[in-house]
């Protein structure tokens, strides 16, 4: 960040269409520079090989990241048959090969085995911790370790077109998958290959949706750069059209009920104090709710027997 340049106060969500070749961390760093702000984080890592939906939270929106990370995700991906790699994608070293090339009816027949709640062993090159170390660090160092089987949920998995032969003679099939938190699509490709009596790895991966955010929300990095370059010469690149790419903080709370409260109750919640819902018309609520006053997000609260207990308080301007 340039010395002496006034840092912007930015709150909200930006849904980046991450390009292939960047890590998620690198993408967030680019956005921090564009928006001239320090506080930002993403909701769900995408590998450098992958493109697509990377929700990025700025400022107070970072407090809502867990609610997006826990949301359903949709991926479109291409599996190349006959080769398995140590990373389960095209960036790794070949570890197994097979001459078997599955037919479409054979592929369709095994898809139900990978739908629902299934057991999955994550890729060795993943961010899962083993005895305090990241699995990908251990894998790069050639360490011998095993990852535990985990249960993940795949709500839908389908082949999106016929298996094709590429110009290099490789056999590839494209799929679309809707899945829950913790699912590794690379592991899915690996395991499908093995069940089909061959081997497989990912050669293309695009995330289409995360929680409430989908393709219609995504903005490419070069478009954001263009908006930044066209911003007024005020020393603050967030003014104007670049700022308009941000979505409100509460967009991440789409599946959580909202409750309008008075300004005095909002002050109590901001001070960490519970609020009692009074009167005959007071709503009967239980569980997680987000409270607003005059249309502005105040807090995430736990509603219990007529009381609101603050869990996360937001300090938004205005």
List keywords for this structure.
alpha+beta; 18% helix; 5-stranded mixed sheet; 318 residues; elongated
Q: What is the CA-atom radius of gyration, in angstroms?
A: 23 Å
Number of helices: 7
Give the CA-CA distance, first to last residue. Answer: 26 Å
What is the approximate shape?
Answer: elongated
- Main β sheet profile: 10 strands, mixed
Query: Structural class, please?
Result: alpha+beta
> Order of helices and strands, N to C?
EHEEHEEEHEEEHEEEHEEHEHEEEE
The number of strands is 19
Poorly predicted regions: none
Mean pLDDT, all residues: 90
Task: Tell me the helix content.
Answer: 10-25%
Strand content: 25-35%
Write a structural description.
The protein is built from seven helices and 19 strands. With 318 residues, the chain is an alpha+beta fold. Helix 1 packs parallel to helix 6. The two termini are 26 Å apart. 35% of the residues are buried.
Q: What's the gist of this structure?
A:
With 318 residues, the chain is α+β, with helices and mostly antiparallel strands.
């Amino acid at each position: 960040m340039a010395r002496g340049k006034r840092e912007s106060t930015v709150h909200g969500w930006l849904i980046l269409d991450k390009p292939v070749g960047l890590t998620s961390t690198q993408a967030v760093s680019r956005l921090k520079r564009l928006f001239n702000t320090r506080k930002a984080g993403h909701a769900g890592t995408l590998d450098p090989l992958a493109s697509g939906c990377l929700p990025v939270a700025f400022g107070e929106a970072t407090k809502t990241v867990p609610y997006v990370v826990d949301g359903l995700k949709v991926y479109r991906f291409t599996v190349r048959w006959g080769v398995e790699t140590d990373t389960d994608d095209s960036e790794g070293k070949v570890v197994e090969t097979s001459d078997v090339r599955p037919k479409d009816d054979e592929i369709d027949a095994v898809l139900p085995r990978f739908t629902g709640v299934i057991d999955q062993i994550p890729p060795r090159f993943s961010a899962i911790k083993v005895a305090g170390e990241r699995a990908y660090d251990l894998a790069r160092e050639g360490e011998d370790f095993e990852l535990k089987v985990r249960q993940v949920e795949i709500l839908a998995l389908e082949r999106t077109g016929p298996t094709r032969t590429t110009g290099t003679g490789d056999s590839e099939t494209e799929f679309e998958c809707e899945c829950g938190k913790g699912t590794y699509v690379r592991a899915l490709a690996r395991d499908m290959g093995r069940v089909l009596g061959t081997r497989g790895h990912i050669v293309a991966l695009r995330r289409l949706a995360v929680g409430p955010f989908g393709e219609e929300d995504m903005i490419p990095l070069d478009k954001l750069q263009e908006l930044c370059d066209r911003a007024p010469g005020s020393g603050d690149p967030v003014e104007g059209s670049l700022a308009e790419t941000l979505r409100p903080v509460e967009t991440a709370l789409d599946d959580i009920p909202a409750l309008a409260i008075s300004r005095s109750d909002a002050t109590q919640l901001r001070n960490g104090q519970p609020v009692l819902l009074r009167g005959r018309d007071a709503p009967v609520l239980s569980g997680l709710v987000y409270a607003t006053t005059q249309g502005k997000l105040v807090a995430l609260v736990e509603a219990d027997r007529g009381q609101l207990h603050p869990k996360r308080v937001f300090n938004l301007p205005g």
